[in-house]
Amino acid sequence: MLSAFARAFRTPDLRRKLLFTIAIMAIFRVGSFIPTPGVDYPNVQQCIAESQNNDLLGLVNLFSGGALLQLSIFALGIMPYITASIIVQLLRVVIPRFEALHKEGQSGQAKLTQYTRYLTIALAILQSTTVITTARNGLLFQGCSVDVIPDGSFTTLALMVITMTAGTGLIMWLGELITERGVGNGMSLLIFTSIAASFPTALWSIAGGANGAVNFIIMIAVIVVVVGLVVFVEQSQRRIPVQYAKRMVGRRMYGGSSTYIPIKINMAGVIPVIFAASLLAVPGLIAQFGDQTAGWVVWISTHLADPAAPLHLALYVAMILFFCFFYTAITFNPDEVADNMKKYGGFIPGIRAGRPTAEYLDYVITRITSAGSIYLALVALLPTLVLIGLGLSTNIPFGGASIIIVVGVGLETVKQIDSQLQQRHYEGFLR
Fold first, then answer.
1. Residue 49 needs a FRET pair 20 to 30 A away by CA distance; which of 262, 302, 318, 412 works?
2. What is the DSSP string of 318-339?
3. Average confidence (pLDDT) over 47-65
4. pTM of the predicted model as reported, rounded to 2 decimal places
C-alpha cells in the first residue's frame, strides 16, 4: 500500500487532487480552533478542564472534531448538513414532489441538493442559537465557575449566531470542493477528519489513567477486532443474478447480457446508530432544564441519560434494529426495482418478472437486513461495553459509530484512488 501511495503521488493530476484534499482537511482542522467572536477563550479552556462530562452534546462534539466545546467558528461541524440530508431523504416518502425529483436524474438531484443546502443553513441557525443559549445558561459546561460569554448583549449573540452559521456554510462548501476537485466524498472525509482527530487524545487519556497500560492494550485489541469485523461485513454483499433477454430495436439487437444486483449486508450504513444516539439524548436534554431534585428528572438521569444504564443500552439496541429496517425500506424499493427490470426485459433466473420478483427481492432484503441490523448493534455496543467494564468514560470516541465511519470512509477513498491508478495503467492498492 505504501508503494501504491508513492505511485499515486508520482502521477501529476492525482498528486494535485491528493494535495488539494489534504489542504482542505487542514483548513477544516485549523478552523476548529479559531474562537467565535464574543467567546472568552481562556475561560473556555478552564471550563473544559473543570466541567463534568456532558453526554448530551457528545455526538455533535464528536462530529465537529471537538470544535463544539471550543465554541469555535466551526463549532457545529458537519452535523447540520448530515441532519438536512437525512430529512430530505425521509421527505421523499412523504412529499411526492421530492420523489419525482429523485427520479428525474441529474437535474432533479441538483434541485434536491439545493433544498438540502437551504435546510442546512436553517438548521445551523437553530443549532447555533441552541448552543449559545446552552453555554450562556451554564449547561454546556456543567460545574464551571467562570462565564464563557462575558458580553450577553443582543449584538454579540447575533454576531455569534451569524459566525457559526457562516462556518457551517463554509464547511459545506469545503466538502463540495473536495468532491469536485479532490479525491473521495468531501462530506465523508470531513467527518473522517473530525473523528480521527480525537483518537490520539483519547488514547493518551486511557494510557495516562489508572491501570493505563492494561486498559490501553485491551482497548487497542478491541478496536482491531471491531475494525476487522467492519471491514469484513462492509465488503460483503449478496449478488442477485439478473438476465436480460435479447430484443430488437430497429435494426440493432440489444440485451442478452447477464449482470447482478449487489445488496450490501448493512445497507443503512451508520445512519441507524446516529438516529438512535440522537433520540436517546433528547430526554436527558429536556431533564437538564427541569428541577434537578424532581423525581422524573432523577429517573431520566439514572436510567436514560446514563450510557451505562441497562435501560439506555436496551433502548439503544432496539432503536438501531428498528432504524435499520426503516431506513433500508426507504432507500431500497423492491417494487420499483422489479418494475425497472421488467421494463428493460430483465428477470431473475427461476423467478417470474413483475410481482413475484418484487416479493423475492423483499424476502432477500428482509433476511439480509436482519443480519445487518444485528451486526450493527453488536459493533455499536461492543466498544461501549468494554469501556464500561474497564471503568472508563463513555465519552471517549471509540464507539461503534466512530469506527464504522472511519473504516467505511477509508475503504471508499482507497477504492477511488485505486480505480484512478488502474485507469492510468498503474498497479492499484488491491493486488
1. 302
2. HHHHHHHHHHHHHH--HHHHHH
3. 61
4. 0.78
pLDDT for the residue numbered 165? 93
DSSP codes of every residue in 268-285: TTTHHHHHHHHHHHHHHH
Judged on CB neighbours under 10 Å (0-12, 13-18, 19+), 351 is middle
Cell of 310: 441497562
CA distances from 341 to 241, 245, 317, 358, 410 (A): 12, 11, 36, 10, 33
- Dist. CA 428–CA 97, nearest whole Å: 42
Residue 131 CB neighbours (<10 A) = 22
**Nearest alpha-carbon partner for 316 in 248, 365, 381, 258:** 381
Give the confidence band of 120 by pLDDT, cuts at 50, 70, 90: very high
pLDDT at 93 > cutoff 60: yes
Cell of 42: 481562556
Residue 354 burial class via C-beta count within 10 angstroms: exposed 0-12, middle 13-18, buried 19 and up: middle
